[in-house]
């Protein structure tokens, strides 16, 4: 952990910071925080702030999915690092936290630590990893209803300039917070917005996703808006994705370009894509496991609901982006079926772990599907898209336990089964209404 020396406090005080937030994102994908006065920054980094172990199994509606190992007893600590601190609004600094036990060791359900383990596993194999993130969200009115009622023009200059004051504030606030934004645009869905973040190491990328959600939500509130990160905010409306991009390099260069395989893939790059595809049925519950996720995860929604890959294929679960002059970051694979209800640390760990598993096992890359999978003659492996089937697959999966630990899988299943039991029999519109703001920061 960084040393919370006096200069760090003095710098924050000069910037007007009065309180410091440290957050963790639970297995339901909800980000929760504790605050201390700036004078207590040292305690936040050394011993941390106490939280119940039940924080990890809080649910979208504040229920608690107690498990045989998580009950009313016990205590954990949220610890932050001064090097991660960002000023997020007037008077407030924020840092991502790790969950630790009373002795400073990582808690078994700390998803940020789990992603760090996957990142180290790649380094141990001599691989450098970069991830990029795209955040789709929906602008809402202050009452959480639709932000606008006039006709929407997807990607339209009118729909974006109508919100220019908001977008300008968003860009300047993101820069002030140290967030590297690559682009902003209004999206296909009504009142939908997308922010793309620059690629970084996996843990830094997941941290940036949380920071981006915070900045988006706080800036929106200054403009009389709210932001929904629900996979489907309104029944029948366009859904929100949380796509992750992954690239891998070794001492000889990128794995996804420079080779003699399809579109320049090297052998290990092909194995990595094969590994991601192979684990999809086991990990849908990680990537898109909420009660509202199946409303988005359907063929025809450009949500990657088919277990296949293809060059720039937006209906494939894995969209391959080749190394071309139009792609300054180089070749990468995009996992499209992730939605904002997923814990971004856990989704990134599963994505990276699956790619490494494919390399370790030299998995064969399936045949590419270059067209809409619904119109292809090439057979694909079925995915458990309904929530009960996705949870059943994850709960019994040796792969999920291998990549994420059985403790995390068991707790995640408990959280999502709570959602299924509470909301699963309700009409889609009612489900959408119930969780529309669950993932808003």
From TrEMBL:
Protein name in UniProt: Glutamine synthetase
Record carries keyword Ligase: yes
InterPro entries associated with the record: Gln_synt_N_sf (IPR036651), Gln_synth/guanido_kin_cat_dom (IPR014746), Gln_synth_cat_dom (IPR008146)
Family: Belongs to the glutamine synthetase family.
GO biological process: glutamine biosynthetic process
A single GO molecular function term of this UniProt record: glutamine synthetase activity
Residues in GS catalytic domain copies: 111-441
This protein's UniProt keywords: Ligase
Key word Ligase present: yes
